[in-house]
Amino acid sequence: MATASTTVERLYVDGEWVETDSVLEVRSPYSGEVVATVARSGKEEARRAVDAAARAMREPLPAWQRADILDRVAALVQERVEELGRTISAEAGKPIKSARVEASRCVNTYSLSAGEARRLSGESVPITGTQSGHGHIAWTVRVPVGVIGAITPFNFPLNLVAHKLAPALAAGCAVVLKPASQTPVSALRLAAICEEAGLPPGWLNVLPGPASEVAEVLVEDERVRMITFTGSSEVGWSLRSRAPQKKVALELGNASPVLVEADADLDLAAQKVATHAFAYAGQTCVSVQRVYVRREVLDDFVSRLVPKVEALRAGDPADDATDVGPVIDASNRERILDWVEEAKAGGARVLAGGVEENGVIRPTLLADVAPEMKVCRQEVFGPVCSVIPYDSLEEGFELANSTEYGLQAAIFTRSIGPAVRATGALEFGSVMINEAPEWRVDQMPYGGTKASGNTKEGPAYTIREMTEERLVVLATP
Ligand code: NAP
């Protein structure tokens, strides 16, 4: 039953706000109340959206105009950080202070993309460097890849959507977006802002709806030239195999490791782990999940870490004091608690948390875990972190590399030698030194290796993925 604060949302196709015969109910992960009812897209709306996007791209927008629209979106998001933060918090259960940060980062994503639209260029090709090139001039231009299908996860419903939409517009590509069914409202708010900023019809279409219908159209329709996907590894790689002729950019999961060397600043490492293992209840793709600590400082490190974890406030995401809110839904809560039980049954000790209070899993710290346990081997995507000893740097690297994932990793040390060795030995897209692996700013190249993905996001990198290099050769007399 809808509550008084429930909003009614329409989907966005070809510049129109559309109602459909059925709706999705968006529920607060904290209270379970319906926070929005959203028009649900099926295949018909998805096909209409691809038609609109293809039509829009037949009348390209010049770079200056794309950049101006992106700058206006950034300014409007800036004005509405509080409102957008509240929307994120309500639908995703993200603590309000983290939700505001997400909304502020979205401003950066749009303004960085505006800069990329203004800078987009090809290069001259030194074609006369061989005899056969004589009498020619050559250069490249970057052309939009075509209509882009974007599929996004629940955990950053505004800024991860922005990481697809803003560079796509900067590149000159129209987008059909399928947001996560659990968190479609932030994406619809962003579409309204894009419209207000002057984005013409067709360039952006937002279709909340089931993957089996909306994503399927994006896979099947040949006019969709690229799919950009952020979400779980399982879905991402299967999507790529189903769309062999399209460009498919994948930003996927991780089980972030941290190495703590004996000479590390243990207080700093403990503070970073406590914050970045449990921010948004561990539901970021780079949450700290496995902390490997040199055996000789293990007890010292744990004695600093436990009070910091216990001091985190778990509860209502709308409360400014809350550090750790609920996980996205009951089935994930059950799964995470099952994994903790499995670890305990195998001999793991609970150093903190391990219990649920009012639907929120307390930040949970485990010791004595074995590598084959799910909490070590798979992505928990919840507020659970394990502390594990190691005896040599080589062993630490091996343990850190021992999952299928490779997104971001970190080492804490005061010595340059182990830090530099880590940058070579850790098989991850990014290696942080004396910083948490959850650290991200929006301009950096962000993306993983192995099962974690095949691309880099960050406007300067995404715009290259979303454009193709076209060679132009001019014969000179
Ligand atoms: P998910 O279950 O893979 O869903 C992601 C998106 O894919 C949703 O829009 C979902 O739609 C859609 N989807 C589901 N099944 C599909 C299918 N068979 N074909 C096409 N699309 C399909 O992931 P999630 O639970 O929302 O997000 C958590 C995952 O995202 C974690 O693994 C996390 O590590 C990863 N993640 C990665 C990054 C990164 O940048 N590397 C960032 C954030 C999150 P419905 O909602 O309608 O099911």
Mean pLDDT: 97
Q: DSSP strand (E) fraction?
A: 15-25%
- Whole-number count of domains: 2
Shape: globular
Which distinct ligands sit in these coordinates?
NADP nicotinamide-adenine-dinucleotide phosphate
Distance between the termini: 76 Å
* CATH-scheme architecture of the largest domain: 3-Layer(aba) Sandwich
* Percent range of helical residues: 25-40%
Q: Sheet with the most strands?
A: 7 strands, mixed
- Report the structural category: alpha/beta
CATH H-level superfamily of the largest domain: Aldehyde Dehydrogenase, Chain A, domain 1
Strand arrangement, largest sheet?
A: 15-18-19-14-13-21-22
CATH class of the largest domain: Alpha Beta
Query: How many helices does DSSP assign?
Result: 15
Quote the CATH topology of the largest domain: Aldehyde Dehydrogenase, Chain A, domain 1
What are the segments in which pLDDT stays under 50 over at least 5 consecutive residues? none
Radius of gyration: 23 Å
Short description:
The chain is α/β, with parallel strands linked by helices.
